[in-house]
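HUMAN: You are asked to prepare a plain-text protein record giving the amino acid sequence and the backbone structure tokens, both parts labelled.

ASSISTANT:
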Amino acid sequence: MKKKLGFILLIMVFLSLNHHQAQARNASIVLEKDHALHAQFLDFSFSRIQILNRNFMHNPDNIFVEPRDPFFVARYHKVEPASVTVEVKKTNSGMTPYIGVLRYTEIIYESNGGCSISVVEGPFSPVHYRKVTEIFRYVQNRWQ
């Protein structure tokens, strides 16, 4: 009798775990790329990348130059649009029905030379990469 009770208890625990796993899977359903919200989040993401690129203190339009004996170094930051990936997930939240995950790579470019004027003309090479992940909420029919 004790074995049957233990076996029944084990089955109940197993079924309960499977139910919670199924709920977790449903909470993170990734929308297809042809879904309207995915396309809207992609547009939102590229607008965000344009703003980031414009707002970097040192960007291609405002290159930082510093002397580094016996040369000069020119540097700027940029997010390459080709590095952008997006994902839209459905949630179980009534207030935030979807989240958008934006991933991109921020790159620092440098150029070295003997003159502060010529170093700004390049050529520039990537010297540092930083992977960034941002999460946005879809609330009241817009991405935030």
Observations:
- Residues 31-143 form one domain.
- The first strand starts at residue 29 and ends at 30.
